[in-house]
Amino acid sequence: MVNKISRLLAVLAIFSFSIWSAGCGAAETKNTAAESKPQKEIFVSAAASLTDVMKEISAAYTKNHPDTKLTFSFGSSGALQTAIEQGAPADIFLSAAQKQMNTLDKEGILAEGTKKDLLINKVVLITPKDSKVEITSFADLTSDKVKRIALGEPKGVPVGQYSEEIFTSLNTLDQMKAKAVYGSDVRQVLTWTEADEVDCGIVYATDAATSTKIKVVAEAPAGSHKPVIYPAAAIKASKNLDEAKDFLAFLATPEVTKIFEKYGFQVK
């Protein structure tokens, strides 16, 4: 037991997550009926690229489910996978790639029959809005003028894995590794590019759409990487499995489809 706790603490020390909760409003409204019913907390581990859209979706969900509190952990899919394997609280996992979800499935961690492909995204090349380095395509990244390229760390960050697939397709992987600055998740890549700390970065189209400080200069060449598919599933060890399944079902409703599309995601 002590070893298990030690491993969990080590994981959480290595990977930092952005924690955000929704559903506390019910306790603040002083609604007698709501207060008499214990509030159930659902822990959702979600890819960093889902940060903005999930805040709006959770607000819509908790409006009609005042007895449920949604607590989100946002981070790289690889870091979240590791945390779940080590026993971190999680009722639902929303990954930015199938690799991490499939691993948990093979390990018997997912609730049977709950895994499904939820969303599709695109990979784009971005530069600071007022960049002085002329970049118009992925081919331009081989230029000596391009010194620093922000990428997701490929071992645990799906956008970094897609980036390496793109460079492999273009036969430029070794050149790009020499220029790479690796971020812990896609939002760090975006932040570095916004701050003009790098010449360019590779992110998802939905992340790029959240910023006015960057410009999208190119979309990944067709066929240069695996499709960007976001799977979702409930965790078998969940103490509130019925509620977790209910929230997953909510993600497939027409109301939520419109929210996903508003943020640039394509619904499967």
Automatic annotation (TrEMBL):
Top-rank lineage group of the source organism: Bacteria
This protein's name: Molybdate transport system substrate-binding protein
CDD domains per UniProt: PBP2_YvgL_like
Matches recorded under PANTHER family: MOLYBDATE-BINDING PERIPLASMIC PROTEIN (PTHR30632), SULFATE-BINDING PROTEIN (PTHR30632:SF0)
Keyword set, alphabetical order: Metal-binding, Molybdenum, Signal
Binding site for molybdate: 49, 77, 186, 204
One family name in Pfam for this protein: SBP_bac_11
Family, per entry: Belongs to the bacterial solute-binding protein ModA family.
Gene Ontology process terms (BP): molybdate ion transport
A single MF term (Gene Ontology): tungstate binding
Signal peptide location: 1-22
